[in-house]
Amino acid sequence: MTVVRVMTRDDIDAVSAVRVRGWRTAYAGIVPQSYLDAMDAGADAERRKEWFDAGGDRVDNLVATDGGEVTGWAALGPYRGEPDGGEVGELYAIYVHPDRIGRGAGRALMDAVRARARERGFRSLRLWVLADNERALRFYDRCGFAPDGTDQIETYDGVPLKELRYAADPA
């Protein structure tokens, strides 16, 4: 059974492994392979531990667990596109271990993110998703998010990729 809780420092190695594995699976054929190959879960964990030890910032990190094993991770905070974050929240990241996709961890994380967004007083939620990530687009659609007409270009190893901004009510 999936349980969602606040991430602890002890979860960081597993979160980084889920994140890197998630990137390599979700973005294969979209993001340049050189970029994906250069990702390192150990280095990611060290950066995340430094951030965590420094007190983090205004980000809520949540983990999905099953039988005590971290199976997913999500991060939520103020929207980065507004000077003070305002009343708009942003889902910075949501990843589920590729072997666990389709078993409810993603939905459980999204439900917890929305609950936390309501607690924080966010009147809306936004996220950025690569336009070519069809699985993620379907997931966000099922979760009530929709494109709001805004896009941007992010560059990975010199390759420009289009991102779409999706929005939803946290309710």
Brief overview, please?
The protein has a single domain, classed as Gcn5-related N-acetyltransferase (GNAT) (Aminopeptidase).
Overview of the molecule:
The chain has helices at residues 12-26, 33-38, 41-53, 105-119, 134-142, and strands at 2-6, 60-66, 69-78, 88-96, 124-130, 146-156, 159-168. The protein has a single domain, classed as Gcn5-related N-acetyltransferase (GNAT) (Aminopeptidase). It is of the alpha+beta class and 171 residues long. The relative contact order is 0.16. It has a 7-stranded mixed beta sheet.
What's the helix and strand layout?
Layout: E1 2-6, H1 12-26, H2 33-38, H3 41-53, E2 60-66, E3 69-78, E4 88-96, H4 105-119, E5 124-130, H5 134-142, E6 146-156, E7 159-168
Parallel strand pairs: 4-5
Antiparallel strand pairs: 1-2, 2-3, 3-4, 5-7, 6-7
Helix pairs in contact: 1-3
- SSE arrangement, N to C: EHHHEEEHEHEE
Through-space gap between termini: 24 Å
Strand fraction: 25-35%
For the CA atoms, what is the radius of gyration?
A: 15 Å
Question: Would you tell me which CATH topology applies?
Answer: Aminopeptidase
Helix coverage percent of residues? 25-40%
CATH superfamily label? Gcn5-related N-acetyltransferase (GNAT)
In the CATH hierarchy, the architecture is 3-Layer(aba) Sandwich
- How many individual β-strands? 7
Q: Classify the secondary structure makeup into a structural class.
A: alpha+beta
Number of domains: 1
User: Which regions contain 5 or more consecutive residues with pLDDT less than 50?
Assistant: none
Largest sheet: 7 strands, mixed
Give average pLDDT, whole number. Answer: 95
**Strand line-up of the largest beta sheet:** 1-2-3-4-5-7-6
| Silhouette | globular
CATH C-level: Alpha Beta
